[in-house]
Amino acid sequence: MEGLLLIDFQTGFDSPVWGARNNPDAESEAARLLAAWRGGRGPVFHVRHCSVEAGSPLTPEAGGTAFKPELAPLPGEATYEKTVNSAFIGTALEADLRARGVTDLVVCGLTTPHCVSTSCRMAANFGFAVTLAHDACAAYAANADVSWAPGRAPMGPEEIHAAAVSHLHAEFVTARRTAEILGG
Fold first, then answer.
1. Of 53, 89, 90, 116, which has fewest CB within 10 angstroms of its CB?
2. Which residues form the Isochorismatase-like domain (predicted)?
3. What is the pLDDT of residues 72-128, one digit of tens each?
4. Does the global pTM surpass 0.85?
5. Nearest 5 degrees, angle CA 154-CA 155-CA 160?
């Protein structure tokens, strides 16, 4: 069975603190996937990040843990809260996937190089076949800290996204466009 895993589509990622973002269509592509799964394709699993870092836009106090309206869970859809990058650490996600008979996952979310990447890697290591809907994911300029490499120019969000997807594809995931996943 194929499940859909939506990671961190929450209002805290609308904060300007993240900087420039690639792929303004990530949410609409994710909504297309969600509609297909809600239409009978398989179970849906929502994850949100509840930061424990002071000042983070992803804290309940900042209001950043609310799901984006177009991707909010419906009653009965599984929802998980995490405080680290992986959707599997500190949650019942793996056990629930296995209990539902899920063997394959389609994953999308925010941000590509962080929670999406970490969750995809863990899912693959747990033995799930993972498809990454790369056009239903996005990265931000804030992901471009190059302080470790003096003189290196920061990458833009599109480069960050492409690098993250490239590191995952063919080892941990099969990266595909939403249209390909949906057969169109």
1. 53
2. 4-144
3. 999 999 999 999 999 999 999 999 999 999 999 999 999 999 999 999 999 999 999
4. yes
5. 140
